[in-house]
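Dear support,

Our group has been running a series of protein-ligand predictions, and this particular one with zinc ion is the one our PI (initials K.S.) wants archived with full inputs and outputs. We had some confusion internally about which version of the output was final, so please treat the block below as the authoritative record. The input we submitted was:
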Amino acid sequence: MGKAIGPHPTRHGVRSLIESATPARRAAQAVDALRHGWPLAFANGPVLLPVETAIASGATASRMLISSARAVTLKLANQLEAAAPHEPVLIRGGERFDMSAAVPIADPALDLRNPLKGPFKAEAIEWEVAAKAAMELARIAGILPAFMVDPDNAGEAQPIAASDLVHYADAGALKIITRARLPVSASDTAEIVAFRSSADTREHVALIIGKQRGDSAPLVRLHSECLTGDILGSLKCDCGPQLDAALRAMADHAEADGGWGALLYMRQEGRGIGLVNKLRAYRLQDEGFDTVDANQRLGLPDEARDFATAARMLQLLGATTIRLMTNNPAKVEALEQAGINVTERVQHQLPDNPHNAHYLATKRDRSGHLLK
Ligand SMILES: Nc1nc2c(ncn2[C@@H]2O[C@H](COP(=O)(O)OP(=O)(O)OP(=O)(O)O)[C@@H](O)[C@H]2O)c(=O)[nH]1
Ligand SMILES: [Zn+2]
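Confirmed final output from the archive:
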């Protein structure tokens, strides 16, 4: 662990903290720090203050770290030889950035209101690994991927090493915590199973419908959380109808054929970018960007889900040979790569509506979904 010590070993006691915490603990504390608006102190890298959440309102910095998509919008494309494509970009302004200058640089939703203040200059990054880890941590924390670099007046920083991140995503740490009978409208004999991990504290659940049998492959639906669609009945996506139809299909299968089904409800909102960033993407969609471009314009991946965790849930349930309800071949591939045998892809297409027709067409044309 001593190897993880950064270039400033005496800085605010960073040495002792980085040596005393485990990598998984540092990763979890870093995600937490970003949500709270506290800076991160990267081993072999700078101190980075998350612009969106920063509580240090008096912080200033001569440089900022932003996504390459954001750099393109800021008209830095011609200077991007300083940075590799799709990699984070380090920018320097004419004057130091304070919060009022940094926020419109961070947030594409403000572009229509704020004429962008330049000129900015892109600089080469000497700590690429830390820069990429910072972008990934911002995605996990559900905040905008934009940071002040080595700011003044930023407050105490949380130590982190880029290599800590793999421990956060460790699907092997997931365990079944409890199970309970849960009568639902599709089936009054359903059972809910709750999962937790000591690394990533989001709680996933599975709903088992019908009687689990070792001799028949269950019908499985891997559903990613969509608060707007699942709970509020949003018409912008197909999540709510897909959720209901999956449970009904499993109940029919149990009743008619004595089969069984498992719905995995994964807490990875917005294909892994979080609720607030998904709503930011919706604003951009109202400006004319499609679902893929909107994510990318925010500097976030258009697909960031963790299918290894879904595979681990299936393994813990004893369901390693399955029939998967999906239109997305990438889900089948990801589960198979993680050791699940998918014997059949069961089409799961619901009727569209005027609000989600374009979204579904984009999934078909740009994301490889097999939709008719
Ligand atoms: N970022 C983003 N996420 C969205 C948008 N619309 C829906 N989602 C999220 O997409 C996820 C739903 O995807 P799923 O239906 O599980 O999966 P899929 O990849 O569409 O494939 P299927 O299995 O065929 O439905 C949920 O986490 C939603 O919150 C959007 O416009 N932007
Ligand atoms: Zn949805």
